């Protein structure tokens, strides 16, 4: 069945009428033509579809668009433009943080959110010790980025880019 969904995507109000089974990823890609977010697995295992919803990263293939009614969504297209890149996008270019580029949008959205999580003191859900205060060390960043796979294996350059932005 169809449902009306209102989202704010990259600062713009979007009113959609969607099949209730439409994922946020398909709503972005197929209905809003924001194809920067990629579909790698469509089942929450690769991170290529990572976007930010209300400031938190999410695998957009794992949530239905209707569940995000009223949410603010930021995709790679909203982070920056080729003329005016986000610092994380600049760092990925500078450090060659990609090879084929398929995972890059998800890597960058995740990386921006990871630095926000650490800054806000949000514990990593994958860390063994939930009471451990978040830190800026590269092993913690690597752990928090572990949901974003890169089949080309550009991990060391991706880490270089993120740690440069982390400062
Ligand atoms: Fe969503 Fe792989 S496409 S996690």
Automatic annotation (TrEMBL):
Reply yes or no: does the keyword Iron-sulfur apply.
Answer: yes
As its record notes, the protein acts as a catalyst of:
an aldehyde + A + H2O = a carboxylate + AH2 + H(+)
Write out the coiled-coil annotation as residue ranges: none
The main enzyme category here is: oxidoreductase
Localization, per the record, is:
Periplasm
> In terms of one coarse class, where is the protein primarily found?
periplasm
Q: What role does this protein play?
A: Oxidizes aldehydes to the corresponding carboxylic acids with a preference for aromatic aldehydes. It might play a role in the detoxification of aldehydes to avoid cell damage.
Q: What is this protein called?
A: Aldehyde oxidoreductase iron-sulfur-binding subunit PaoA
Q: Which gene encodes it?
A: yagT
């Amino acid at each position: 069945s169809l449902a009306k969904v209102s989202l704010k995507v990259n600062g713009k109000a979007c009113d959609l009428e969607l099949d209730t089974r439409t994922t946020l990823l398909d709503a972005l890609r197929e209905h809003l033509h924001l194809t920067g977010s990629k579909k790698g697995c469509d089942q929450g295992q690769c991170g290529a579809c990572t976007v930010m919803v209300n400031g938190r990263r999410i695998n957009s293939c794992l949530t239905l668009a209707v569940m995000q009614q009223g949410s603010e969504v930021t995709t790679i297209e909203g982070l920056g433009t080729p003329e005016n890149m986000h610092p994380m996008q600049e760092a990925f270019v500078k450090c060659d943080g990609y090879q084929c580029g398929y995972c890059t949008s998800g890597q960058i959205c995740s990386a921006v959110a990871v630095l926000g999580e650490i800054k806000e003191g949000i514990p990593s859900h994958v860390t063994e010790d939930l009471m451990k205060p978040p830190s800026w060390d590269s092993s913690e960043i690597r752990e928090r980025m572990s949901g974003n796979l890169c089949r080309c294996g550009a991990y060391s350059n991706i880490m270089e880019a993120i740690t440069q932005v982390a400062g």
